[in-house]
Amino acid sequence: MAEPKPFTIAKLFTDLTGQNVNFTQILKAPLTKAAQAYGVYLIKPMDSIRVVQVDLPLLGSLGGALLGLPSQTVKESLAAPALDEPLRDAIHEVLNVASTIVSIDDRAVFQTMHFGVDSLPTGVADSLKNPAFRSYFTVTMNGYEGGAFSIFAPI
User: Would you say which domain of life the source belongs to (predicted)?
Assistant: First the structure.
């Protein structure tokens, strides 16, 4: 499987949000205590899956930048009991746009968004424990909260 390049991913999200976004590839899973969000993608033509795991504060920052929300507003929205619809839609759009880098060789179709590993479809969470492919990145974003961004191709 061809691996996405940090520069390519950074350019995609910089162009999307209008903010300077930097991706740095790392070898081991990043240590994070942040809540996690997951995007599940169907890879065509082989009908396999890929999963993107993102720190929720980072995903919120990307969505918030897309809407033009200040960082503090994003933090407050993420701390609320229910995510407001405009930010949720923007986060959904960020995961949809990420389909262009989830699979370099094949077509990725964004399927679902989940907040927390317990909400993942049956079998997806288990397959993340021993993936066939994994790519880890740390992300910084001017004026917003950064975090961890990982791509998995489960067995």
Answer: Bacteria
